[in-house]
Specification:
This protein has 138 residues and is α+β, with helices and mostly antiparallel strands. 33% of the residues lie in helices and 36% in strands.
């Protein structure tokens, strides 16, 4: 694989870490939270029941990984915010956040840091973006 393709592949895998997944294996299937995955598809799944357990699966037994929840498009939101705050928006996929004006932090949960009129405007853009996503689903 070219380095660009490998990088994209790893980014895609990384985007589902921390999300609920169903893993189909030779022995059956299991649902839980994907804790870690490597490019060879060796993975760790966390299952919460009466106690929390973590299972390590070798890529040799993994047939399929299915994401059970929707991904939040941080890049789409960052692009939208950049129209309102040109050149003042930084997408930080490594921490799952967007930083606006070096003082307002936005995650998939909304504005988590920052106050004042700028933070209120960011919240308005975030709310409108969520509403647009909801409308597309319906």
């Amino acid at each position: 694989m070219s380095s660009l393709v490998e990088k994209k592949y790893i980014e895609e895998l990384s985007s589902i870490v921390g999300k609920r997944v169903r893993v189909d294996t030779e022995e059956g299937e299991v649902e839980g939270t994907l804790i870690a995955v490597d490019p060879l598809l060796n993975l760790i799944i966390e299952i919460k029941a009466e106690t929390t357990i973590r299972i390590v699966y070798s890529s040799k037994v993994v047939k399929k990984i299915t994401l059970l929840e929707e991904l939040f498009d941080l890049k789409g939101l960052a692009d939208r915010l950049n129209k309102v705050f040109p050149n003042m928006v930084k997408l930080r996929e490594d921490i799952g956040a967007i930083i606006v004006m070096d003082k307002i932090k936005v995650t998939k949960s909304g504005v988590v840091e920052g106050t004042g009129p700028s933070a209120e405007k960011v919240k308005q853009v975030y709310d409108a973006y969520l509403q647009e996503l909801k409308s597309k689903k319906e």
